[in-house]
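Task: sequence design from structure.
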């Protein structure tokens, strides 16, 4: 199956232990404006837990993209999105320390997360 930034991505269940470092994989390279650390990004995204493959969040499920200042997002996004170009699709595998922390009150604390992000715009 060919994935394009216009369709909801499918994430294959990962094999092996969760990585301890942020993994950045370009699925589709964009050709538009490049996201910077200071950018506000317009994205479609899908998030699943690494260990279970269970989807925990998706802008696709809400039927609309979201717009965020990168500096307001989890560290994995702050590090993993800059350099991405509009029109691109990127997979981030984010260890707990760069997601919602290794422990604490958030339901996703202590979990490695996988995101597939489509960059629709930057400002």
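Answer:
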């Amino acid at each position: 199956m060919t994935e394009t930034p216009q369709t909801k991505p499918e994430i294959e269940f990962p094999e092996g232990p969760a990585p301890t470092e942020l993994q950045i994989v370009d699925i589709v390279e964009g050709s538009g404006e490049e996201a910077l650390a200071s950018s506000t990004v317009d994205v479609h995204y899908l998030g699943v837990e690494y260990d279970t493959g269970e989807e925990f969040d998706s802008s696709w499920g809400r039927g609309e993209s979201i717009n965020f200042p990168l500096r307001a997002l989890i560290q994995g996004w702050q590090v993993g999105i800059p350099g991405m170009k509009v029109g691109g699709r990127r997979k981030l595998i984010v260890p707990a320390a760069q997601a919602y922390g290794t422990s604490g009150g958030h339901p996703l604390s202590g979990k490695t997360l996988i995101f597939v992000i489509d960059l629709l715009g930057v400002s």
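Strands lie at 23-28, 40-49, 55-58, 66-69, 89-94, 113-122.
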